Amino acid sequence: MAARMAFSRLTRSLCEVGRSRSLLLQSARWVTSASKTLTVTMDDKTGIAEMSLNRPPVNSLSLEFMTEINIALEKLEHEKFCRGVIITSAIPKIFSAGLDILEMYQPKPERLSEFWKTLQDMWLLLFGSRLTTIAAINGHSPAGGALVAMSCDYRIMAPGFNIGLNETQLGIVPPFWFIDTMMHTIGSRQTELCCQKGLMLSTEEAARIGLVDKVVPLDQIASEAKAEMQSWLKIPVAAKLITKQTIRAPILEKLQTRQEADVQNFCNFAMKDSVQKSLGMYLENLKKKQKE
Ligand SMILES: CCCCCCC/C=C/C(=O)SCCNC(=O)CCNC(=O)[C@H](O)C(C)(C)COP(=O)(O)OP(=O)(O)OC[C@H]1O[C@@H](n2cnc3c(N)ncnc32)[C@H](O)[C@@H]1OP(=O)(O)O
Questions:
Q1: Cβ contact 52:62 at 8 Å
Q2: Which GO terms describe its cellular component (predicted)?
Q3: Confidence check: pLDDT of 22 > 90
């Protein structure tokens, strides 16, 4: 249901963005075409797909990038032989820098609402996926990046990076469904501590509170993710999926029943002068940091 609703919006979004991104079936493996920013490969023997994010410099989630991700997720969801997907990054040291702040800073109102709908769709597709989903977190993963990781069934992270919902540090508020996703992962007390302070946790701190399930060296992250996936795929599929749906359905429904209102809230909030000022200053600091 979540995936179907997301798909109808996705189709519209695709037309508006005006890009064609077909997925080509190529014997044993299929790969995304038309774009270098997302590579999806599938091993037909194991039914395991890998989605690799590759939008330099930091895999920030723009409208177009999320549309691509959504199309790929939708395709995998309907791919008969696909049983699981591993999400990772092709960019050294960055899993995803989260939402593209440039989408929210001095935005055009129509694009802003489309941007938010596309983010909602991405979350609905990923959090509600029938597939087993594993995040192989091979770099920093703030805010929207953490949301992607937390929406998966399992998280493996390499040491030396940070992860968390840091929105309050930017003077913005994590949406209720970001918070719900974190509460689902680490419980409400830890979520409150992390979200109010906008904490970015080290890999080890994240593992300590269950935000990350396993810590492995960077060079072993891909093989470990595959091994972990194999163990999940041994569980009887219907039993596993119904269990996942039972746990996640109320969280998904909360957004599904308020999607339009959530878009409106977000747009109103984002357009506030004070929020625009905070975002402008944050962007400025990111650039300054680069020069230092
Ligand atoms: C308005 C209402 C909002 C309601 C709530 C919305 C919920 C929000 C969710 C979000 O995801 S907001 C985004 C949060 N993300 C961040 O705070 C991450 C910021 N980035 C970083 O901390 C670092 O860039 C990094 C990811 C740790 C990587 O550091 P590194 O030193 O490797 O690279 P930089 O030199 O910092 O960056 C390179 C380049 O990329 C630009 N950039 C970085 N992050 C973003 C981003 N999220 N969006 C857009 N652009 C980003 C950065 O400015 C540099 O640009 P140039 O100077 O090269 O042009």
A1: no
A2: mitochondrial matrix
A3: no
Ligand 1 pocket, residue 100 CB under 6 Å: yes
Nearest atom within ligand 1 for CA of residue 143 = 11
247 located within any domain: yes
54 is a domain residue:
yes
Ligand 1 center from residue 237 Cα (angstroms): 38
Using a cut of 0.80, tell me whether the model's pTM lies above it: yes
The predicted pLDDT at position 87 comes to: 98
Query: Looking at the domain assignment, is residue 176 inside a domain?
Result: yes
Write out the residue range of the structural domain in which residue 146 sits.
2-218+236-291
pLDDT band at residue 288, thresholds of 50, 70 and 90?
confident
Q: Report pLDDT digits (tens) over 212-250.
A: 999 999 999 999 999 999 999 999 999 999 999 999 999
Q: Which of 123, 132, 176, 131 is nearest to 151 (CA)?
A: 123
ipTM of the complex: 0.98
Which atom in ligand 1 lies closest to the alpha carbon of residue 286? 53
Number of domains in the chain: 1
CA distances to 99, 194, 258, 276, 280 from 221, rounded to whole Å, are: 24, 25, 37, 38, 36
Residue 291 pLDDT level (bands cut at 50, 70, 90): low
Task: Find the 58 Cα to ligand 1 centroid distance in Å.
Answer: 7
Binding site membership of 275 for ligand 1 (Cβ less than 6 Å): yes
In total, the chain counts a number of residues equal to 292
- 258 domain residue, yes or no: yes
Q: How far is the CA of 60 from the centre of ligand 1 (A)?
A: 7
Q: What is the CATH number of the domain that holds 28?
A: 3.90.226.10
Which residue's alpha carbon is nearest to atom 55 within ligand 1? 287
